[in-house]
User: What shape does this take?
Amino acid sequence: MISRESADELLAGAEGAYLIRESQRQPGMHTLALRYRRTGASASRARPHATPSPSRFGLQTLNYRLFYDGKHFVGEKRFESVHDLVTDALITLHIETKAAEYIAKMTTNPIYEHLGYTSLLKDEAAHRLSRGRAEPRRVTFQRDERISSPLVRRSALKDATEKQCSYDKVHNFKVHTFRGPHWCEYCANFMWGLIAQGVRCSDCGLNVHKQCSKLVPSDCQPDLRRIKKVFSCDLTTLVKAHNTTRPMVVDMCIREIELRGMKSEGLYRVSGFSEHIEDVRLAFDRDGDKADISANAYADINIIAGALKLYLRDLPIPVITFDLYSKFIQAAKIPIADARLEAVHEGLLQLPPAHYETLRYLMAHLKRVTMFEKDNFMNAENLGIVFGPTLMQPPEQNALTTLNDMRQQKLVVQLMIEHEDVLF
Assistant: This one.
């Protein structure tokens, strides 16, 4: 426990020397004091979390609050030893001091658009455009007529405007330690530091500086080799990795159910054996679209229906996304029928394209399920009870909130089934 002045005296004249001192004002708090030479204009630019001791020119003592949670750190990076922390700091300080102006300009002329990766994405986007993949349609509802009337439906369909859309996906960047020299794939500059020199997208493998990651466009093209499973995988990530419109699980399960299960009593309400549902999950995770879910493998259609519900329930971001949850709940509370339906439609337009397309396909299927109500006893309200909590989950995962919102969750799904032809 020594003063800052005493630390300066001990470190005087020795560039790269460091010591750790305990705070006199706050016992138990520690400061890393590091001696470093800052020259010219850079001498006045200390790092945001570092406090330099006064010095007219040259050597300064930089003081960092030092923390420990099993590893040592002063910022985001964690180190096994203080020695490694100081080594990394000296590398970073040297780069930032000697190349400050260059670093400030290095993102102004990125090479990213000229990379083969980006060119490939543009080719794929052009291919999607040629196939005519459409965006959600914007519909204006007439206030003075019943929502279910054919006139309103025809008017809505006539006024709807279809636009091209692409499944944009943000990169899933995570801090990464590179072994050996590495260069940023956005700006083509060296990635410096001892550890955690940059970030890597865990879905496509793109390597960039942390500061460059904020400038990279939302054009992640997931690599199938990096997608380890189908269930519990982000919806947009999965469809982009497999180059499909919707998740394979949704397509395959619905196809199987419509082939042999539409008249099954209590379809989606009756549960299949959980062990067999787990087998289906493992089959999709292992075999992807080659998974066998035929009657030969699973005679009970409730197993396939249960697997579909499990897939939707286990999505890390629900089909109706967390950030739109409250919008749909509030829409369901609107007392006027056509205003309520218009509010639900506005919410649908804000869904990510892959989520929208999955929901559209699912609601069309559930509408067909209700056509067999005399056999399966499942109407839109019953299906709303089943699928409400599956498709919508509050962001805070609060049991009381979920309980209070159950009626609105049910109503939202019920409305989407009953008015599927108008809403989508």
Q: What stands out?
A: Residues 40-48, 116-122, 127-165 have pLDDT under 50 and may be disordered. The radius of gyration is 29 Å. The domain at 106-117+166-221 is CATH 3.30.60.20 (Wheat Germ Agglutinin (Isolectin 2); domain 1). The chain has three domains: 4-39+60-105, 106-117+166-221, 248-419.
